[in-house]
Design a protein that fits this description.
By secondary structure, the protein is an alpha/beta fold. The chain has eight helices and seven strands.
Length: 185
């Protein structure tokens, strides 16, 4: 795996879905949709949007799960749920509690309408220390970082600039091809 570099399999930043700070969740979803339509790198579509600051530097990542979390009702039931967990209620009971609260909440269509105008900063995840990999690093380094950090992607750097995204799906495809090559030799 040491012969393949990150630069060979990463998605360049210019091809990735991005929005600026201050954008809404709807802006982010539209950017993701557009990037998915235009992107033909392997067969895997983008599953996140990068958030850029005013200088164009990546300050966060908004995943599909982050967008969906905006649809969850956040009310007094959160405090009730935490209390139930502390008291040792079963996971099955807590799942039932969550389901009941979901059924009592506003219809999904109303929640979608409200969530569309929320700012991406409220739901994006700022990249952590282990979520960066140098463009010249080898594939085995990326495999280790993805597995050890339980990440779905890594931000690819060149010096102090982010130049791309290394997705788990692309790393898996590269490893898969290497496995097949090993079997043929």
């Amino acid at each position: 795996m040491a012969n393949v570099t990150i630069r060979e399999i990463m998605v360049p930043l210019s091809e990735y879905a991005t929005v600026r700070e201050g954008a809404t969740l709807l802006d982010a979803v539209l950017a993701l949709e557009k990037a998915q339509e235009e992107f033909e790198h392997y067969q895997y579509r983008h599953r996140a949007v990068l958030v850029l600051n005013g200088e164009g530097r990546v300050v966060g990542k908004l995943s599909q799960l982050d967008v969906l979390s905006a649809l969850e009702p956040g009310d007094s039931s959160d405090a009730e749920l935490k209390q139930l967990m502390r008291l040792g209620f079963s996971h099955e009971f807590i799942r039932g509690f969550r389901k009941q609260k979901r059924l009592e909440a506003e219809p999904l269509k109303n929640l979608c309408g409200k969530a569309a105008g929320l700012k991406v900063e409220a739901f994006m995840q700022a990249p952590g220390e282990g979520e960066y990999v140098e463009a010249t690093a080898s594939l085995d380094i990326a495999v280790h970082q993805l597995v050890a950090g339980d990440h779905l992607s890594l931000l690819v750097t060149q010096g102090d600039a982010i130049v791309g995204v290394l997705r788990l799906a692309d790393v898996f495809a590269a490893v898969f091809h290497l496995m097949k090559e090993c079997q043929l030799t």
